[in-house]
Amino acid sequence: MIEESFATMGAPPATTVDFYWCGKILGKGAFGQVTLAMHKLSKKLVACKAINWSILKKDSQKEKLEMEVSILKRFRHPNVVKLFETIDSKNHKLLMMELCAGGDLLNYVRKRRRLKEDYAKFIFKQIIDGIAHVH
Prior knowledge:
It is a single chain. By secondary structure, the protein is an alpha+beta fold. It has 2 domains: 2-101, Phosphorylase Kinase, domain 1 (2-Layer Sandwich), CATH 3.30.200; 103-135, no CATH class. It contains 4 helices and 5 strands. It has helices at residues 2-9, 59-74, 105-112, 117-134; strands at residues 20-28, 32-39, 45-52, 83-88, 92-98. The N and C termini lie far apart (41 Å). The mean pLDDT is 84.
């Protein structure tokens, strides 16, 4: 498909869901779910955030989603999740994002019940650095 696209159009093909293998569900939210996915060509593991367009009833919700996408596209910081690409389909918007294999912070802290102060400071500094960059 890629060779054919370069031969006919002189450019890479538009990315589609066919470029990825999707695996197990990592989490669910109000508007969709996040699954583990692997890019077929690079074999890179990513998180695929699938947002169902039909659930977003108000235009303001769709605008917030588009704002999230435009903001994430601009950022490159070690403490902010990277957005690699987006794929639009009829019913869903797919966000291919950096995989954070350690899970979310809430579950991390719950699992350990308590963090040592030095380690809590280290994590807190990372959060503040990420927020400062976004701000």
